[in-house]
Amino acid sequence: MKRCNIKKVLLLGSGALKIGEGGEFDYSGSQALKALKEEGIETVLVNPNIATVQTSEGIADNIYFLPVTPYFVERVIAKERPDGILLSFGGQTALNCGVEIYKSGVLERYGIEVLGTSVQAIIDTEDREKFIRRLNEIGVKTIRSHAVESTAQAHEAANELGYPVIVRAAYALGGLGSGFCNNGMELDSLCEKAFSFSPQILVEKSLKGWKEIEYEVVRDSYDNCITVCNMENFDPLGIHTGESIVVAPSQTLSNSEYHKLRELSIRVVRHIGIVGECNVQYALDPESEDYRVIEVNARLSRSSALASKATGYPLAFVAAKLGLGYGLFELKNSVTKSTSAFFEPALDYVVCKIPRWDLGKFHGVERELGSSMKSVGEVMAIGRTFEEAIQKGLRMIGQGMHGFVENKELVIADIDKSLWEPTDKRIFVISKAMCAGYTVEQIHILTKIDKWFLYKLQNIMDTSIELHSITDLQSLPECLLRKAKRQGFSDFQIARAIGFDDDTEQAALKVRNYRKAMGVVPVVSQIDTLAAEYPAQTNYLYLTYNGVESDVRKSEDHRSVVVLGSGAYRIGSSVEFDWCGVQALNTIRKEGYRGVMINYNPETVSTDYDICDRLYFDELTFERVMDILDVESPRGVILSTGGQIPNNLALRLDSQRVHILGTNAASIDNAEDRDKFSAMLDRIGVDQPEWKALTSMKEIDTFIDKVGFPVLVRPSYVLSGAAMNVCSNYDELERFLKLAVSVSKEHPVVVSRFIEDAKEVEMDAVAQNGEIITYAISEHVEFAGVHSGDATIQFPPQKTYIETMRRIKCISRKIAKELSISGPFNIQYLARENEIKVIECNLRASRSFPFVSKILKLNLIELATRIMLGKKVERPAKNLFDLDYVGIKASQFSFNRLQNADPVLGVDMASTGEVGCIGDDTQSAILKAMLSVGYRVPAKNILLSTGNTKQKADMLPAVRLLQDRGYTLFATGGTSRYLAENGIKNTFVYWPSEGLQPQALDMLHERKIDLVVNIPKNLSAGELDNGYRIRRAAVDLNIPLITNARLASAFINAFCNMSIERLAIKSWAEYGNDNNL
Amino acid sequence: MKKAALILDDNTRFNGYSFGAEHPASGEVVFNTAMTGYTESLTDPSYAGQIAVLTFPLIGNYGVPGKLFWESEHIHPEALIVGDYSESFSHWNAVESLGEWLKRENIPGITGIDTRALTKRLRESGVMLGKIEIEGADNTLSPVDYGSENYVEKVSCREVIQYNEGKSKRVVLVDCGVKANIIRCLIKRGLEVIRVPWDYDFKELEYDGVLVSNGPGNPDRCQATVENIRRAMHDEKPVFGICMGHQLLAKAGGASIYKLKYGHRSHNQPVRMVGTDRCFITSQNHGYAVDNKTLGTDWETLFENMNDGSNEGIRHRCKPWFSVQFHPEAAAGPTDTEFLFDEFVKLL
């Protein structure tokens, strides 16, 4: 039964999205808050991630956009005095913070009860030694290291463990002296090497090639246990589960293996004393039933979010209820609404999770996959054959692939090596290998991937070969067409296989019409948690060709509105579009229509079946969207709340007479197509930086002679990582164009004049029939040159001239009118003095919509959606000039996860997440925001390299402030001289390349530095290398690093003028309550 | 692959391809929602007379292991219906593919069926008879009547078999179609097991307790077993019933049995121990159930199904007799209730 002494509960969020901590915690937290609300419990949420759904109105009662750190959480506790706290819904961030405030006695002091799993149980799972001991108590095997100090001892350990073993040198960084040994001889030679690095080595059983299996377990306080789902990694042990393709349920486990591991999971969870949800990870020997427990996560996790979406079992929701004292037997299955929540879902489909990487965005990053996570998002594909699921999934990751086959030829130098050493491209290397005639057996030996998966991939390849033998559509037999569709082939793949080379999009349409005429169409199936044993009351749907009958009827009443979601989270498109999608759905339903969502990202709230009337967990390709529209016959489709993926479909959907709500497709195209947009700006007399699409070096030279350096270069075809770059001289330009980009008639590069020291200003707005209804102007802290997704953004602007704002409004009005915009849009401007230029315009919601909506306390998406639905809207009375507080949006970077990547900011986006904090003034907002993305106020020592002369001068006041506040300053060459000349005391340190003492790198390694300000001067090789080594060391050693002069100044000003203790602990609702001017 | 079809009694036709023996078959069409364990299910004698439909589509992935891992000597259902059969398999203990095995055992199998649509049909109309037709085969069959057939007689052992001789406690195992794992669970607990045919009069044997096993078909066909159980009850010996055994013990205690609309066949049936907060996930395979209303006053409900409230176990208020509708021996399915064997041992 529910405990009645809990009236107010604090929930800790996970902060900004970062690699390893993604959108899944917005979903978990939102579910938990919903569960608490249902019980009439008052909720308090600490989470600075302003773009999330959980920090929206109506989800939690009191929201604090503050860092999830012990200091701030304690202050919130002191103010709010909650009765209970939930620690397991905000990832590792919340868990770590919770353990700290438990250990420091804060929870006890304020009499706060930890709901769900006890902190002691959490500690038992987090501390490796304790964890092994606890599992040992119940005879459950873990992966254990034997520390040895001689070769003889190493042999003893190896014999006990059984070969192969891994040897690691203790205390050696970067895996020096580590390796695998298959026998005693190999052990001898490796020991010799390892002992030269370290007096002690660790011998572990090698589980290379073992299967990796996970179970999601739920336990209530009455000791009732269920396992909601198990999952199997496609990639064997050795690749982080976040980097692996994962299937659910397991496919290669026999009943005996499945239930052996299930039973062990329950035994572990009971022994540790979990109340709520928990994840148990195993390594399983592919040649026997031998196993090891890898780890136990005593909290909601990426896997639990995936399991919830894979099964329809709302793990976080149930876990929150269990935390309140309910038994599983008291809760209902939220899909059938009639059967018990104490059950284990039966699936009648298979799901496939595929990670999404963005490694191409980073300079110098290692592409090899291993034990640390690098992916930034994921997709989940549902099918009734593995072939169908995996091909859907490979399209969903959105990296230009059409499935397992019929992709652009991949250039692989050494197939064997690429199979053996997995990278983000591994699955496509398998495709390539199969094409090249490798057998399943050969690929299995090189990859250790279970042969069952490879057989299935081979099936796809075989069908592809069969399709290739067909020469024209009319001779494609129905049975082959059906087989291909059942294996997840898209119309596009079929068209390409048959050999329509020229316009494949048109050809795909022909395939579509051909198959529809034959009646080859997908059916709609429900995810019902019980494999059709009981009827489902919710509409959680997917499409499949492996069926003869749909579970839902076609809707004919035109009362539904379809919203296209944003797909996989990736750099540049993340939780902010989930928020937009959810707001659109809420508005649609509020206005009396049925809301329909199409999306496939398991980390989102928009794919929670509670949020809409029908959820199609499926592809956002033209083909699939059309399939769904055939079933839905909606009143219209909303493209403008899901970022770029839906936007790109505008013209094609329009050509099929799909009713796009809001701005029409032709206008969207006029804004997206650079040529058309540019011509339009000229026509209406709006200024823009000069630019040209160029196809030869000669043309580029002529253009640069005209506009001068620096220039921004945007290639259409990229060879290596770099996608966009600013070049300040011929050297850089040549290097960039030769190394990274191919220039040709087919692949023009767009070169534009790069305006230095210009302010970047953004206009987020909503218009109706070309007339702006409301708007929000915000300014970047950094000058132009830092991608708007990485920039620190202030709203309302505090340092932009009124004149500039007036001009921006005026230009925006012109553009809105010319494109007759109806709905959300965003325009980015450059402003120097009062000279305004348009950089780009998106006729959709932008990344900053949730931020400005929440600061303004005016939901721009709700307004935009009402306009798109054709409702009359009033011009809201609110505007940004009335706000008596400011918001700062700061970016979160994940460079620590991306080995070797240069943590420098440029014109291409690199951040993985963001926070938004509110303050009564800029300084307090900046300080809260910077602390929220992991910066710390430096204690004493600061290392400065402040860039070129101009940047040095710009930073001088801030550096002087540091001196005044008693900081000890260290500086490299030029900076040191410059500071000395300007009367600022500092200690000179040498660059890494100079090799002399005192040495900057050594100071970092000795942890003598509390903050590094390292501003790259330019892109010259030596400068980059020296700076790179310092920047990289700062990241690897977890020392706060700033690489932008303007941001550095802003942060320094903030922490020098404002102490943390003086920061107001105010909830979102408390800002802007006093309306007296 | 040859074309094949399943035709239900209501004339609904499901087309697919044959991957097993190529001859027609008929039986009661039932669905099972388990996601693993086709080897165990196929060798479970309780499936005799039935056509098994697996709702989980991907089947055959891990092939078929040797006999050691089976639940009886043979495949028992009349036929197997799946969505996406995998001829290629991968597992360390597999010795052949599922298709090869079905052919060897002379059992038809059909793949390419929308088992979800089929299951929905069975859920809505109730279980019904169905037949399998194979392209090009002679598809004439004599009609069956599942309810009146005595399947127990067909699958029970013919003579007494002893296991683990010489142990201090002896259990009579009444074989109505016993799964091997029940025997393993008894042996593992150090018991001597005397396995007797379903209608064997065991009162002359020396024993400490009786276990009445699972089995196929209509419990009303097993009156002989009911009589034997009554005699054991007369001696006040401990009795433990599983599945069919549960229904027979209930009958011996005076209760009556009814047929469920579409039965419980899955690995995820939640049961609650009545009067407690203890709940278990159980493996089940039954089409008949004990009618709670007909339980005598000396008996009480031990477990109930948390989804539909049906009876999942009974016990006598003072005598050492109890039984469960689900399978504590699992195989296939969850092992949460194996402790019931320990409870039985305590009574001996």
Short description:
The complex is a heterodimer of chains A (1077) and B (348). With 1077 residues, chain A is an alpha/beta fold.
Strand order of the largest sheet of chain A: 14-13-10-11-12-15-16
Lateral arrangement of strands in the main beta sheet of chain B: 12-14-13-15-16-21-20-19-17-18
Summarize the largest interface: chains and residue counts: A-B, 59 and 52 residues
Report mean pLDDT of chain A, rounded to a whole number.
92
Task: Tally the beta strands of chain A.
Answer: 38
For the largest beta-sheet of chain B, the strand count, sense and barrel status come to: 10 strands, mixed
Output the radius of gyration of chain B.
20 Å
Query: What ranges of chain B have pLDDT less than 50 throughout 5 or more consecutive residues?
Result: none
- Relative helix content of chain A: 25-40%
Summarize the main sheet of chain A.
Answer: 7 strands, antiparallel
This entry's quaternary arrangement is: heterodimer
| Whole-number mean pLDDT of chain B | 96
Shape of chain A: globular
Give helix and strand order of chain B, one letter per element, not per position.
EEEHEEEEEEHEHEHEEHEEHEHEEEEEH
CA(first)-CA(last) distance of chain A:
50 Å
What does this structure look like?
The complex is a heterodimer of chains A (1077) and B (348). By secondary structure, chain A is an alpha/beta fold. Helices cover 36% and strands 19% of the residues of chain A. Chain A has 36 helices and 38 strands. In chain A, helix 1 (24-38) crosses helix 11 (315-323), helix 5 (119-126) crosses helix 6 and helix 24 (665-672) crosses helix 25 (674-684). The relative contact order of chain A is 0.08. The mean pLDDT of chain A is 92. Helix content of chain B is 19%, strand content 33%. Chain B has eight helices and 21 strands. In chain B, helix 6 (223-234) crosses helix 7. Chain B is globular, with a radius of gyration of 20 Å. The N and C termini of chain B lie far apart (54 Å). At the A-B interface, helix 9 and helix 16 of A face helix 3 and strand 17 of B.
